[in-house]
Every structure is written in structure tokens, then in C-alpha cells.
């Protein structure tokens, strides 16, 4: 009897402690919790996301990298509200991306997220000028009408085009601009309604390196000056090595990440140091880097050894 009471009390205590714990990612702007996306084409199933965990805090500038087919675009489409995951949870700025109805989804895409795609032609309406493209999302959102509203929208358009270095393009059609200019105007369009999250899927993929750098600098400015949280998918190693956080996606899961920090030494000299981490998912799983596993011949199982402040992983030499 005493034992049962103790056990019940203990169970209640544990349940209460669990309830009091903040929910996973409670303080994050983007929460992906065991996200799964399965595509079925011609009877064949493809698991594009296989339980992906990712937290992004407000104000971060994060690069997503990974081999072709690892699931980066699938993740971006889900966060953009264009696709719905098969299972798991995804939240952006408190919006549950699995539970949204059609109208809420439309509002989410208009007000909460902005996106820029790799194909320049996909980002802008070809028959509108840069200024008209930028004003359009604000007009669609509605709000204050009349002359005051129009003036406010024109002002925001001017500020955005100036901040992104394309004010000279304001009266040009997309075909009268270079690829890099089009992408920077696309950024202005994406930022028009002041989204909390800006998604850019390979925005520099079709550009030469100079234009690519200008687009990346514009993204960085949006992050620093407007405080917009930015997630950018890139194969460009220059971009990936310049952001403070680079997350690698492998086989539909986040596998590792690099964080860069500027440190000042005793002489006041600034250096940027990079720290490489392996992702530990919510179930405690981690993916060993493929090259580590190959180098030590780690297959099927590994020996674990718990030390005071670290864990050793060794190949199984007992066979
Ligand atoms: N609509 C779809 N129907 C069927 N399979 C799909 C669909 N979209 C993506 N996939 C598959 O899901 C997997 C992940 O694709 P995804 O485009 O997300 O990868 P990625 O990392 O963005 O690749 P890349 O760097 O080449 O753009 C791939 O195997 C892809 O073939």
C-alpha cells in the first residue's frame, strides 16, 4: 500500500514537472518538431523529411545547406505555407502550419512570411515595374485606403528599394533589370508587409558571384536593419561561411550545424571562430558525420564510453 502511494505520488510529481516544463521551442520563432513529409508518386513513396527537428530564434540569419535531395526545399515550402507536412509539428510566429485553414493560410503567406525563389522569373510579375511589384502585396493586404494609405505604401516602397540598393530600378520592368537587381527587388516585395520570417531558396543560384554577393548583402541588411529573421538555402560556400549559423540537412533531418562567433582577444583583435556541432534530436539521436564513420569504419554499431564530461564513440573491435 505504502509502495503504491509512493509510486502514485512520484508519478504525479513527474507529470507536474513535465507540465511545468516549457514546450519544445517555446521561445523560438520557427519550430519544426519531428517533421515528416512523404511524397507518393506513381505508387513510390519518397520520405523527403524524416523527423526533422529545427528551432530558429527571432532575429537569426541561418543558412541551410545539404546535398541535392536532402529535403531543404521541402522544408522551405512547408515554412512558406505552400505545402503541408505528413506528420510532426511546425509553427512559425505561433501559427500552427498543420492546422491552418485556407483563409488563415492565405493571410499567413501574405503577412507572416516572405519568400524569394531561385528562379528570378518566379518572383516578380513581368508586366509591373519594380515599384508596382513592391506596392502590390501592401495593396492586397488592404488597410488604410485613400491618399494617406497610398502615400504610406509609396514611402515604404521607396525606403525598401533604397535600403536594398535598387532605387534606380523603381520604374523598370523586370526584363529591363539584371538578374541580381531582380532578386533584390524580389526581396523588397517579400519584405513589403514586414514579415517575421524571410525565406530565400537559392536566391543567388542563377547569378554570377558579384551579383550573388550583392543579393546576399541585401539579405543581411534586411536582417540587421529590419530585424527580420532570415533562412536561406544555399549551395554557395561563400554565403554559408559568412552567416552566424549554418545548419546541414542530411536525409531529411538536420544533422549538424556550424556557429560562428566574433571574439575579441586581449589586444582587441577581432577574430571569427567557428564551432561545429552535431545535432541531437529530441529522441537523443545524432548523426555521425559520414566522413568520421568512414574513417573509423563505424558500421552497424559503435561502442560508447561515458567519461566525466564527454562521450567516446569507438568502432566495435570485439567481433
Ligand atoms: N512534389 C514531389 N513529389 C515527389 N517527390 C518529391 C517532390 N518534391 C520533392 N520530392 C523528393 O523529395 C526529396 C527531397 O527533395 P527537395 O527538393 O526537398 O531536396 P533539396 O535538398 O531541396 O534538393 P536540391 O538541393 O536539389 O534543391 C527528393 O528525393 C525529391 O525527389
Automatic annotation (TrEMBL):
Superkingdom assignment: Bacteria
Entry keywords, A to Z: ATP-binding, Nucleotide-binding, Transport
Cellular-component GO terms for this entry: plasma membrane
Pfam family, one: ABC_tran
Keyword Ligase: no
Signal sequence region: none
Keyword Nucleotide-binding: yes
Domain ABC transporter, chain residue ranges per copy: 33-276
Annotated GO MF terms: ATP binding; ATP hydrolysis activity; transmembrane transporter activity
Name of the molecule in the record: ABC transporter
Lineage: Bacteria, Bacillati, Actinomycetota, Actinomycetes, Kitasatosporales
Amino acid at each position: 500500500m505504502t509502495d503504491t502511494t509512493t509510486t502514485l505520488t512520484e508519478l504525479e510529481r513527474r507529470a507536474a514537472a513535465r507540465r511545468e516544463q516549457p514546450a519544445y521551442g517555446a521561445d523560438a520563432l520557427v519550430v519544426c518538431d519531428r517533421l515528416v513529409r512523404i511524397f507518393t508518386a506513381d505508387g513510390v513513396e519518397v520520405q523527403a523529411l524524416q523527423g526533422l527537428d529545427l528551432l530558429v530564434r527571432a532575429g537569426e540569419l541561418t543558412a541551410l545547406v545539404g546535398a541535392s535531395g536532402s529535403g531543404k526545399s521541402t522544408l522551405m515550402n512547408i515554412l512558406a505555407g505552400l505545402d503541408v507536412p505528413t506528420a510532426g509539428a511546425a509553427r512559425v510566429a505561433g501559427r500552427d502550419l498543420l492546422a491552418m485553414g485556407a483563409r488563415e493560410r492565405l493571410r499567413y503567406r501574405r503577412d507572416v512570411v516572405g519568400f524569394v525563389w531561385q528562379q528570378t522569373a518566379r518572383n516578380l510579375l513581368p508586366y509591373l515595374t519594380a515599384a508596382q511589384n513592391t506596392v502590390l502585396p501592401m495593396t492586397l493586404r488592404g488597410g488604410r485606403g485613400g491618399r494617406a494609405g497610398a502615400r504610406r505604401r509609396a514611402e515604404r516602397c521607396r525606403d525598401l528599394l533604397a535600403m536594398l540598393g535598387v532605387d534606380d530600378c523603381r520604374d523598370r520592368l523586370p526584363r529591363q533589370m539584371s538578374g541580381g537587381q531582380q532578386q533584390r527587388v524580389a526581396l523588397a516585395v517579400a519584405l513589403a508587409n514586414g514579415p517575421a520570417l524571410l525565406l530565400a531558396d537559392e536566391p543567388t543560384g542563377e547569378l554570377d558571384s558579384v551579383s550573388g554577393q550583392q543579393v546576399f548583402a541585401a539579405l543581411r541588411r534586411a536582417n540587421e536593419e529590419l530585424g527580420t529573421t532570415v533562412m536561406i538555402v544555399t549551395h554557395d560556400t561563400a554565403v554559408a561561411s559568412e552567416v552566424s549559423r549554418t545548419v546541414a540537412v542530411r536525409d531529411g533531418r538536420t544533422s549538424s550545424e556550424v556557429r560562428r562567433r566574433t571574439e575579441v582577444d586581449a589586444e582587441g583583435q577581432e577574430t571569427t571562430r567557428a564551432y561545429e556541432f552535431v545535432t541531437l534530436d529530441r529522441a537523443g539521436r545524432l548523426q555521425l558525420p559520414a566522413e568520421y564513420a568512414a574513417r573509423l569504419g563505424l558500421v552497424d554499431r559503435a561502442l560508447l564510453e561515458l567519461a566525466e564530461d564527454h562521450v567516446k564513440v569507438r568502432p566495435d573491435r570485439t567481433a
